[in-house]
Amino acid sequence: MLMARITLQVDGLTHVIDADPDMPLLYALRDDLELSNPHFGCGLAQCGACTVHLDGEPIRSCVTPVSAVEGRQVTTLAGLGTPDNPHPVQAAFVAEEVPQCGYCLNGWIMTSAALLERNPHPSDAEIREALADLKCRCGTHMAILRAVKRAAESI
Ligand code: FES
Ligand code: FES
Predict the structure, then answer these.
(1) Are the beta carbons of 107 and 49 closer than 8 angstroms?
(2) Is the CB–ligand 2 distance for residue 137 below 6 Å?
(3) Beta bridge partners of residue 18, listed in sequence order
(4) Which is deepest, 13, 63, 92, 135, by most CB within 10 Å?
(5) 26 and 19 in contact (C-beta within 8 Å)?
(6) Residue 135 near ligand 1, beta carbon < 6 Å
């Protein structure tokens, strides 16, 4: 395995790791940086549990080579907001009591935040389209729709 020194910018901090350049970004975030919010779901870009922002756009970190994000800004759920100062989407997910098991929510929140960044007042159809490729096995979809609309109203 070819190892390389890779510099990552994550949530405003700089990290240098030694890794296989083809290793998924998700593994670097979870195993090297010990960030627990991006989750491993399918590993095949099918569920969204691993979503982070790359220069503000949602990407699936399970299929993104770690070397592809050098020199770019990665934001995780922890960089979006904090318990004391949550992002409007995070606050709305709490207010609408969205979580069931919670495993998928990283993806829904990161994708919703990116949607509201480019379209602060989306229609129901636009919300559904933006979130169409995400999976939740607990069936929280209607609560998520309410939460995204609540967040849009609060922005
Ligand atoms: S774990 Fe990345 S999309 Fe499912
Ligand atoms: S809240 Fe359990 S999978 Fe979505």
Answers:
(1) yes
(2) yes
(3) 5
(4) 92
(5) no
(6) no
- 127: pLDDT strictly greater than 90: yes
Element (H, E) at 143: helix 141-154
Whole-model pTM: value is: 0.97
Q: How remote is the CA of residue 15 from the centroid of ligand 2, in Å?
A: 31
Say which DSSP state 64 is in: S
Q: Mean pLDDT for the chain?
A: 97
Question: In terms of C-beta density within 10 A (0-12 exposed, 13-18 middle, 19 or more buried), how is residue 123 classed?
Answer: exposed
Query: DSSP secondary-structure letter at 81?
Result: -
Q: Which atom of ligand 1 is nearest to the CA of 26?
A: 2
Report how far residue 48's alpha carbon sits from residue 41's, in angstroms, rounded to the nearest whole number.
Answer: 8
37: pLDDT confidence band, cut at 50, 70 and 90? very high
For ligand 2, whether the C-beta of 134 sits within 6 Å is no
